[in-house]
Write a structure and sequence with these properties.
The strands form two sheets. This protein has a five-stranded mixed β-sheet, covered by helices on one side. It is mainly β. It starts with 11 loop residues before the first strand and ends with a strand. It contains two helices and ten strands, in the order βαβαββββββββ.
């Protein structure tokens, strides 16, 4: 397992997970294996979830509304990073995203909170919510997502976990 950051111009896979609520399912761990970077969009639940994910790849995480306690105090509310030419913004609840999508410097907005896997595009800005990988909520699926970046080419996929 590698914890190296991706090369600047090589194809990159970003694993995206959210709303684990203290549970890192083995299927989610397997689905994220091979990622160059893992983004956790909040409601982590326990610091051990991040520790386990860090054995796969570097982790960029934000605090969710249910992340409480001293371990969560150091988590930022938002984070951003750039991979190749894609500027990525991470926030737990997308309703708190204050930038104007038309003038936003970002190309990808990643959020969690709703537990619903969704992807929409608005004026060239990709909004992605990987859904929830933690305990099942109502009849919503249990999912993670992968984002594949190769230069200007961007694709995504949802992985449905069966447990």
């Amino acid at each position: 397992m590698s914890s190296r950051a991706p090369e600047p111009d090589s194809p990159t896979t970003i694993g995206v997970i959210s709303d684990t609520h203290g549970v890192l399912r083995p299927e989610a761990f397997t689905a994220l294996t091979g990622s160059h970077l893992i983004i956790h969009a909040g409601d982590i639940g326990k610091p051990e979830v991040l520790t386990q994910l860090e054995t796969l790849a570097p982790v960029l995480a934000v605090k969710g509304n249910n992340d409480q306690g001293s371990w969560a105090d150091s988590l930022p509310e938002t984070q951003s990073t750039t991979i190749q030419s894609h500027h990525i913004f991470v926030i737990h609840d997308v309703k708190r995203f204050k930038n104007d999508p038309i003038h936003s410097p970002f190309t990808i907005i990643i959020s969690g909170h709703s537990h619903k896997p969704t992807v929409t595009e608005h004026n060239g800005l990709l909004f992605l919510n990987p859904g929830s990988a933690g305990p099942r909520r109502f009849s919503l699926p249990i999912t993670v997502a992968l984002i594949h970046i190769d230069g200007l080419t961007l694709s995504h996929q949802f992985i449905h976990l069966t447990q």
